[in-house]
Specification:
Strand order of the largest sheet: 4-16-5-15-12-1-11-6
Shape: globular
Structural class: alpha/beta
Largest sheet: 8 strands, mixed
């Protein structure tokens, strides 16, 4: 049976024509615009089960290859950001560095903190803003956002995982989860969809391609054009009332309006609107699940000990291609507006050979110094690439007003740890640290600033996630951690 979505899935909000004026020092400045609903906002939180840095020189220093050296726009691309550079996403992804999750001291875990041991204890602070080491007492960010904006779509929330198995045992356990939903006075874990075939069938089975009604689309374009003309006509009158600083900001705003005006003209000239919801091809059977490895068996680049090309790998590269396609088109078809995307397990033991060319699992790359730092950086970079795939695909999908879907998204990627002090052992330069953590943020929903390197020294990663929540209209704290990162907003 073919399922056809009503036009509201594609035109809901696409005619929104309010054009916001930037915040000015001059008070009581009116906003030009007209009534109308906005294009739906989309939310994605993503997690990588590796630290972004590691110890070097017999643990006398630490190093990462992900935090740029420059601050602000036009940042440089360290090795782990190669995918961001290759996909041309430097203006679309912001890097937030210097983050910190506090840890247990004198037997007490601080607000939003973790026990001294990093592994398996630092997930809850990152995705729920609650104390680590146990089931979070409040829902994770994806579930909070789903409660707020997910009701109008067929799937309030999609919970997906890329790594097919933990490769240590047949039972994935908690390490394969990053989403908890409300359950009475507490929470309950949500098992992710791991199979690309099941993800496809859940989202797209029976869905027919859809197109926008060309007559209504043309009407909406004319509405948008008329509002732009109205604002441009008032330009000189408004500018004459502003001081120097406000005048400069408004000039930049009018330049942006002019660019939008040209894009609307291009859309008008293009004629009939192309399909906006095109279901992906059925992926067929999933890649086979790779064989398990033995706990404590460390891959050895020099001897090949414990290494087997079929161990610990289930063609996660292909799975990432498929799942990123599904996420992008699920947003485009308004099948969901909220996605939780776990790239790898807490403490990732996936085979890293396909990603790095080194015979190792991802976790060992951060500890075994027979591997050079470039191999470790490439392992972190593989996770960045999976996130960047989604960002790139959303950037290529267009809304009716000429903006991209990415312009209406708020997305984040957080890593299991950073680099610095390991409070469990007292080692000052360790990968078992929640100091100097780094996150990636993408999208421009709600005024998010794109393409920046922001040093948010000792800010909590949950404040970054809360910033993306605020960007899609969910203006609340995440768990025990209050506040956002103001520098993330334009």
């Amino acid at each position: 049976m073919t399922m056809a979505l009503s036009r509201r899935f594609f035109l809901r909000g696409l005619g929104g024509i309010a054009l916001a004026v930037p915040t000015l020092e001059l008070s009581q400045v009116g906003k030009a615009g007209a009534a109308g609903t906005s294009i739906p906002k989309r939310f994605l939180n993503s997690y990588a089960g590796v630290s972004s840095g590691r110890s070097e020189n017999n643990e006398s220093t630490t190093k990462d290859s992900i935090a740029p050296t420059g601050v602000g726009a036009n940042y440089d691309f360290p090795r782990s950001l190669k995918a961001v550079e290759d996909l041309g996403l430097g203006n679309d992804i912001s890097i937030v560095s210097g983050l910190l999750v506090p840890w247990e001291k004198n037997g007490a875990i601080p607000t939003g903190g973790r026990p001294a041991q990093l592994h398996y204890n630092n997930v809850q602070p990152l995705v729920a803003g609650t104390k680590g080491g146990k089931t979070p007492s409040t829902p994770t960010a994806d579930q909070l956002v789903a409660e707020a904006i997910g009701a109008e779509t067929p799937h309030a929330n999609m919970v997906l995982r890329l790594q097919a198995s933990d490769y240590l045992s047949a039972n994935a356990g908690s390490a394969g989860r990053i989403s908890w939903k409300r359950n009475g006075n507490g929470t309950v874990a949500v098992d992710p969809i791991v199979s690309p075939r099941l993800a496809f069938e859940t989202l797209f089975k029976g869905l027919a391609p859809q197109t926008v009604d060309n007559g209504e689309a043309a009407y909406l374009l004319k509405q948008r054009k008329s509002v732009i003309d109205l604002v441009q006509a008032s330009r000189q009158r408004l500018l004459s009332k502003l001081g120097t600083h406000d005048k400069q900001r408004m000039e930049r705003h009018f330049d942006e309006l002019r660019a939008l005006e040209l894009r609307v003209e291009e859309l008008e000239a293009a004629g009939p609107t192309a399909g906006v919801c095109v279901p992906p091809q059925n992926p067929g059977d999933d890649p086979p699940i790779g064989k398990l490895t033995s706990l404590g068996c460390t891959f050895d680049q020099k001897t090949g000990s414990c290494y087997d090309s079929s161990t610990g790998y289930s063609n996660e590269e292909l799975r990432g291609d498929l799942l990123s396609d599904f996420i992008a088109m699920a947003f485009a078809c308004d099948l969901t507006r909220v996605v939780s995307y776990q790239l790898s397990f807490w403490k990732c033991y996936m085979n890293a050979y396909a990603a790095t060319g080194v015979k190792s699992d991802f976790h060992s790359l951060s500890h075994q110094h027979i591997f050079n730092h470039d191999a470790f950086a490439d392992g972190v970079g593989w996770h960045v690439k999976q996130f960047a795939k989604v960002v790139s695909k959303l950037g290529k999908l267009k809304e009716i007003d000429g903006s991209s879907l990415l312009d209406h998204c708020a997305m984040s990627l957080v890593f299991e740890g950073g680099r610095g002090l390991d409070p469990q052992t007292g080692t000052k330069h360790s990968t078992h640290s929640s100091e100097n953590m780094v996150m990636l943020v993408a999208g421009r929903a709600g005024g998010l600033k794109a393409g920046q390197h922001i040093v948010a020294q000792d800010a909590h990663p949950a404040q970054v996630v809360a910033s993306t929540m605020h960007a899609v209209g969910v203006k609340q704290s995440l768990g025990e951690v209050s506040g956002t990162v103001p520098a993330l907003f334009a």
